[in-house]
Amino acid sequence: MKYFHLVWAALFRRKTRTFFTIASVLAAFLLFGLLNAVRVAFTSGSDSLAGNERLVVASRFSIMTGLPLSLKTRIAAIPGVKSVGHENWFGGIYQDPKNFVFSFAVDDDYLAGNTNIVLSPEQHKAFTDTRDGALVGSALAARYHWNVGDKVPLQSQIFPRKDGDKTWPFTIVGIFQAAKDAPDGTNEMFFLHWEYFDEANMYSQHEVGWYVVQLSDPNQADAIAQQIDALSANSAHETKTQTANAFNASFAKQIGNIGLIVEAIMAAVFFTLILLTGNTMAQAVRERIPELAVLKTIGFTNRSVLGLVLAESILLLLIGGVIGMAIASALAPALTKGSGGMVRLPPIGAENWIQGIVLMIVIGALVGALPALRGMRLKIVDALAGR
Amino acid sequence: MGNLVEIRNVSKVYERGKQKVEVLHHVDLDIAQGDFLALMGPSGSGKTTLLNLIGGLDSPSDGSIAVGGARIDKLGQGALAKWRAANVGFVFQFYNLLPMLSAQKNVELPLLLTKLSAAQRKKNASVALQLVGLADRASHRPTELSGGQQQRVAIARAIVSDPSLLVCDEPTGDLDRQSAEDVLGLLQTLNREHGKTIVMVTHDPKAAEYARQTLHLDKGTLVEQSAHA
Hints:
The structure holds 2 protein chains of 2 kinds.
Chain A: H1 4-11, H2 15-43, H3 49-52, E1 54-59, E2 67-68, H4 71-76, E3 81-89, E4 92-93, E5 100-106, H5 108-113, E6 117-118, H6 121-129, E7 133-137, H7 138-143, E8 151-156, E9 167-178, E10 189-193, H8 194-200, E11 207-208, E12 210-215, H9 221-231, E13 239-243, H10 244-253, H11 258-287, H12 289-297, H13 302-338, H14 350-377, H15 380-384
Parallel strand pairs in A: 5-10, 7-9
Antiparallel strand pairs in A: 1-12, 1-13, 2-11, 3-5, 3-12, 4-5, 4-8, 6-9, 7-10, 8-9
Helix pairs in contact in A: 1-13, 2-11, 2-13, 11-14, 13-14
Chain B: E1 3-16, E2 19-32, E3 36-40, H1 47-54, E4 62-67, E5 70-71, H2 77-87, E6 88-91, H3 103-108, H4 118-131, H5 147-159, E7 165-169, H6 177-194, E8 197-201, H7 205-208, E9 213-218, E10 221-227
Parallel strand pairs in B: 3-8, 3-9, 6-7, 7-8
Antiparallel strand pairs in B: 1-2, 1-4, 4-5, 9-10
């Protein structure tokens, strides 16, 4: 610590240059924080225990292709299947296209088997008894100040009603909480009656989006999945059955391989950052060769000089990086709120911070290595003579 | 009084590309404890090379150098750095202060290599600045000081760890006459009142008069020695 003032003073010897370098490091780690959160958001909840106890049966070709309702009883008849529910993507918006609502048409069996939500028997009954009833997550209800009994119109982006009107009126009959280990975003969901949806929509009748199958024994998941797929083999509606975790992951991949995209962007950003800060550090050390020679003259060892330059480089990365990540931490919840639920960025947690700080130290050491070696190896008499 | 520096048969050869240039030829020299020696000679005569060897900044190609009984020609780079920190103070022509540090922090630099506490370092640096007459400029940066003042800060930095030997390379070469006299007077005081052994390279005969004796080098060989009153 006694050398800290020396490192700090060297870092801010050229204030403008240091300021711009820190700004570029800040921008890189702001991006890192946000993009890493995006990656986590798209992959979270894909490895929960409950997700391995449920199978999702969807069309082999696309989750947008419906499956016949008649398949339900055949799936339920397979030994080891505890219950079968189904749902359809509704794709609702509230008042404005930016107010996207994660809405699904579900049947009673789906609700009964869904362990991700906490629903009172009264709320469940009210939902069953009300044709246009809707159950909404607590976060969604809080955002739009919805209460039980409110009449809420949602517009479906995909399914108009039979009269061509895209607006669907609903009555809120219950507000649920997400269970403790439920995936992120459960509190943002909106459930409507599948029967209501099936009868009233213009395009699909007696078709479900996908089935959700509860198993008596998760160890039988593979065998039961094969039996389910065998039911519709060589038919016009072949299925692909997988665990809920795998289904969620593949659902996210419909948008693209987010992890790969994020990693590619970050690789480009950090490559540019390494070139930029590497050049800055090289220039900074080149300008200070006589000063480093003075330090060595008065007794600083080669290793001390190496350490000073590396510390300077790492400190540069840490200042910019920590500020960038801190801004990302503040921005993530604001973006989630501002997007009206379209983007749900999780908080930038300890894991992100640890990854970020490790990256800062590694990049700092990397870009400081060559200038530090140059400082370490310089010959005092040559440096003092300006050779 | 015994010798602080004993140089025996020292040669120094530099390689410039494929060419070898012998800068010092078989130099023998003793410098007594408490001496103030001026090294003079034309450019390229080997003055600075000899000074660098005495100060442990460079190693001889041949021969031996002992300072305070330690064979510094035998020391490795790390040991030599530690030896310099404990035994030698350096003063350069262009002061070589760190521009981003205050005078106080510049003087404290050699003390960072000791086990002294921050408070003790600060106190010792203040005493050194007081000794060179710049206690009131402690918080000023080098760019806020005149050339003479900067050189006095450099002298404070050279003496703050109380070395027995000061090596000065053209300490007045960049100063006006008055400032040069102030700096030379200060070096003389350090020699006479504080017992520092000083070896100073200079081109200026008037500066050399402040020393106790002057040695002349020419083409890498000691050619003449003269004592001053």
